[in-house]
């Protein structure tokens, strides 16, 4: 019957993450300024700073002079505390990437690779992950000993085998133990929706507000819901699947097997289908590359392309309204290819539609904006790996990690 | 830039609510058992129990004997600490009800009334509220001095004047100050969605799980989302408007002015429209009373009625799937007239559809059930008034209250 309770230990843990993120945002700061910026007491900040100093996660930067009053000691995050590696695994496209970040989430090096061999074989994928990880470490001249953690960005996130048709099948989710054994490094796995939300908490809109939704618009679409500064995970870590909520009952067939999902209208293939409905003979309907399709569509080459983008903007506005109605965020950030190539055209329509359709005043103070974070999926999974390290050394106690 | 932070003060506050709710559920308990049942430490429970004893909210019940070990002191909530009054205001139907509860949320007396006069005039409504409140207090032989608080259950919850067409218009929301001045009692106002979720936390599924959604199916439909034991309010307290999320893009016109809302299919009028689509000449389509309509439909008088209920079950399953996809609860409870009159017929279809359509394993361990709480709206607003009292005396610090 006992339900998970937050304890004062968890509060200290949250305070550490808060101070760490705030210091990262500030670049350099002092205990007093951190107290001001975080809303925590000076006493709490001092305790937290001691904890973080002890583990080398932040450092003192000498006197931080002021003309008035006694000088205080400056603080900053310690980029050289170690390295975290973000790995992107796209089994469907046989594509892999690994990025090495410093402990301030600054990018150091990137390696990319193609998965050769049978994609449905977990070992093939694990081999490829190991190789691209080593290549990225080489490029960043990073010793394995300096790696605080590895974050694997993996779509899906199913715990149990599911029938092919339902959700993204990804056999590697069933073999995470083997992946960890092979890499011999602390590994954490997260899906892109939650990684992007984590990036927003560390590096983006989460710095200025506590209730936000991060929307990913790519081949798949989905959301990360942050309430009171905490990512909503749900009872089995499956929350955020906005792409598989209803857009039209009994509507277009979604690749998840359900009919009428948001993703079937706002995923890249959904947008292509909208174009095909408007202009069945349009040359872009035959463009096989999804990214190239979006890029070309975003150039608005003709009336049909413009109509497609406008209709998609209405769809997006209507679907975002659902998030406003249900969780009433302060900010919605958009990221992903579609955000990159189409959102500039779409945002005026989207904003208008959301304000008009949201219940009551739920959208009155809402900001809808393109995420300011570079490569938010990778930055986010690096942040998750960093949080995982902080958990391993006892600085973070709140439950937050899904796999491994 | 400072975002609202939870402090250790808030944790103590949450612990007090937790202990209070757990004790209410147990009837009688001891400090050790409370620690076991809540997952809190014995030390925390002891401190919390002292705080609650000091304010007379709980009482000691003498020795709680065991055959083994020394006897310990029993504890129970103190029903006679005072009274809370729940008031239901249905301006649209010119109906009012007031219920007096004891401090254990036990029902003592009910008074009902019709609002006479101009419903759009706030003073008319305020007069009527005052009268029904006094009538209920008389019936419960309760002195005004014993009233710890009054909770007003009011649909809507808009902060700013909205155009007639958008959301439930309810002028009294604009005159809450006058209502409070007139009643000269601590007043709190909450919409039915959040009140029902609060009831579930105090008296229902919230006792056994931390992630749940309470779905209200009546004239209007909506949800209360509980994450980690806390009701999701959103940035302007508007969260939970599931009834105004999309069921079908550009579908049926909803009374909120938007097209295709869930409420236009699952609200009572929506169900009637489904019947009219199946059998335009069906006698029940002319039944003016919404409750009588549901009651009659629930008797499944003919094939058309059965078809309507089945189709509604499919609609409900599809719409609940959205909640599963987005917030991934452990339990969904259903309440409201439709739950009462139709859900027994609908649940098998609903459960099947939710499991089939939810992404991955999000619904694998999900329970969908009819709320076990009697009159959850009123019980919930009474619980909100009790929480408000606990806040007034300093026992509860977490933000939680919307109005007044």
Describe the protein:
Two copies of one chain form a homodimer. The first copy, chain A, folds into three domains: 70 residues, Winged helix-like DNA-binding domain superfamily/Winged helix DNA-binding domain (Arc Repressor Mutant, subunit A, Orthogonal Bundle), CATH 1.10.10; 128 residues, Nucleotidyltransferase, domain 5 (2-Layer Sandwich), CATH 3.30.420; 168 residues, ATPase, nucleotide binding domain (Nucleotidyltransferase, domain 5). Chain A has twelve helices and twelve strands. Chain A has a five-stranded mixed sheet, sandwiched between helices. In chain A, β11, α11 and β12 form a beta-alpha-beta unit. In chain A, α1 packs across α2. The longest helix of chain A has 25 residues. At the A-B interface, α1, α2, β9 and α10 of A face α1, α2, β9 and α10 of B.
Q: Any descriptors?
A:
homodimer, 404 residues, alpha/beta, Arc Repressor Mutant, subunit A, Nucleotidyltransferase, domain 5, 5-stranded mixed sheet, 12 helices, 12 strands, 18% strand, globular
- Biggest contact: A-B, 80 and 80 residues
Shape of chain A: globular
The averaged pLDDT of chain A comes out at 88
Q: Assign the structural class of chain A, choosing from mainly alpha, mainly beta, alpha/beta, alpha+beta, or little secondary structure.
A: alpha/beta
CATH architecture of the largest domain in chain A: 2-Layer Sandwich
The count of strands of chain A amounts to 12
* Multimer state: homodimer
Number of domains of chain A: 3
Cα end-to-end separation of chain A: 26 Å
Q: Provide the gyration radius of chain A in Å.
A: 22 Å
What's the order of the H and E elements of chain A? HHHEEEEEHEHEHEEEHHHHEHEH
What count of helical segments of chain A does DSSP give?
12
């Amino acid at each position: 019957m006992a339900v998970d309770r937050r304890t004062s230990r968890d509060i200290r843990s949250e305070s550490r993450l808060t101070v760490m993120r705030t210091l990262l945002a500030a670049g350099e700061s002092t205990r007093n300024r951190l107290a001001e910026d975080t809303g925590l007491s000076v006493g709490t900040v001092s305790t937290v700073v001691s904890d973080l100093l002890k583990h080398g996660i932040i450092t003192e930067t000498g006197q931080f002079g002021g003309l008035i009053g006694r000088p205080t000691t400056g603080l900053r995050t310690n980029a050289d505390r170690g390295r975290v590696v973000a790995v992107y695994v796209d089994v469907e496209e046989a594509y892999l990437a690994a990025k090495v970040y410093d402990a301030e989430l600054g990018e150091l090096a990137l390696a990319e690779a193609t998965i050769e061999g049978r994609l449905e074989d977990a070992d093939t994928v694990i081999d490829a992950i190991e190789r691209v990880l080593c290549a990225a470490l080489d490029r960043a001249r990073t010793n394995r000993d300096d790696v605080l953690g590895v974050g694997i960005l993996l779509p899906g996130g199913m715990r149990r085998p599911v029938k092919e048709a339902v959700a993204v099948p990804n056999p590697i989710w069933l073999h995470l133990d083997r992946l960890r054994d092979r890499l011999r490094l602390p590994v954490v796995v997260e899906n892109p929706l939650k990684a992007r939300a984590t990036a927003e908490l560390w590096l983006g809109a989460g710095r200025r507000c506590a209730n936000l939704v991060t929307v990913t618009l790519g081949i798949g679409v989905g959301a990360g819901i942050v309430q009171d500064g905490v990512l909503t995970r749900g009872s089995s870590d499956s929350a955020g699947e906005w792409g598989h909520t209803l857009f039209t009952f009994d509507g277009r067939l979604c690749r998840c097997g359900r009919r009428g999902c948001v993703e079937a209208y706002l995923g890249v293939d959904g947008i292509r289908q909208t174009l095909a409905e408007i202009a069945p003979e349009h040359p872009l309907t035959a463009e096989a590359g999804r990214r190239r399709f979006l890029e070309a569509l975003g150039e608005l080459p003709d009336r049909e392309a413009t109509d497609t983008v406008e209709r998609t903007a209405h769809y997006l506005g209507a679907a975002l309204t659902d998030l406003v109605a249900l969780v009433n965020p302060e900010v919605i950030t958009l990221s992903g290819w579609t955000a990159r190539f189409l959102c500039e055209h779409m945002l005026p329509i989207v904003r208008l539609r959301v304000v008009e359709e949201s219940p009551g005043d739920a959208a009155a103070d809402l900001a809808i904006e393109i995420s300011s974070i570079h490569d938010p999926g990778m930055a986010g999974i690096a942040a998750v790996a960093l949080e995982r390290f902080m958990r391993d050394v006892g600085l973070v106690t709140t439950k937050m990690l899904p796999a491994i």
